[in-house]
Amino acid sequence: MIPNTIAFVTGVVLLQWQPSLLPVPFLLLLFLPGFLVWRLPRLRPLACLLLGFLWASLNAHWSMRAELQPALEGPNLQAVGVIASLPDVNSERIKFEFVIEQLSINSEEFDSPGLVRLSWYRRWPDLQVGDRWQLQLRLKRPHGLMNPGGFDYEGWLFQRGIRATGYVRFSSDNRRMGEAGSGYLLGRWRAGIR
Predict the structure, then answer these.
(1) How far apart are the first and last CA of the chain?
(2) Tens digits of per-residue pLDDT, 53-67?
(3) What number of other Cβ atoms are within 10 A of residue 50's Cβ?
(4) Residue 79: exposed, middle, or buried by beta-carbon count in 10 A (0-12, 13-18, 19+)?
(5) DSSP string covering 113-165
(6) Sorting pLDDT into bands at 50, 70 and 90, what band is 184?
(7) Of all helices (H) and strands (E), which one includes residue 109?
(8) What is the pTM of this model?
(9) Confidence class of residue 173 from pLDDT cuts 50, 70 and 90?
(10) Nearest to 114 by CA among 63, 74, 159
């Protein structure tokens, strides 16, 4: 059992050394030899190594699937989604995380990037965790400065699952659409304590 576990972890670590991810069809082709090797007890650690590599690769592909499309950077976007974090307020702006459920430009639907980090400048309404909103947004893919020893903002966003940043545009279409349901009870409870 211990050699199999070490082999699995080694497979996960091997993925970290790859300069890029292998295509998913190729990964699925690797599954068959892994399955065949698994049936031979002496070679089972090799199968575990392959399984660890495959598991980490598919996980990485799953994490990268929700990237913001380049065509969506810049234009005004109509988004419907849910406020997913406690808003961070100062005198000039409010920042919050927003889970986009629907995204469109001029009634043309696009794939949602999922969780985004938004700022709302000037005259923002009262925002509560778990509220569903329709907002007009401008989004961009995350980027940060790569200064040695400095804070890696892009990496921090990636670790939190945030696939885009942006801001709310002033629009008469911005409106609260109700509560999202029971999935945000903990966030509402935290907001109540705050």
Answers:
(1) 48
(2) 888 888 887 777 767
(3) 21
(4) buried
(5) --EEEEEEESS-----TTEEEEEEEEEE-------TTS--HHHHHHHTTEEEE
(6) low
(7) strand 108-110
(8) 0.69
(9) confident
(10) 63
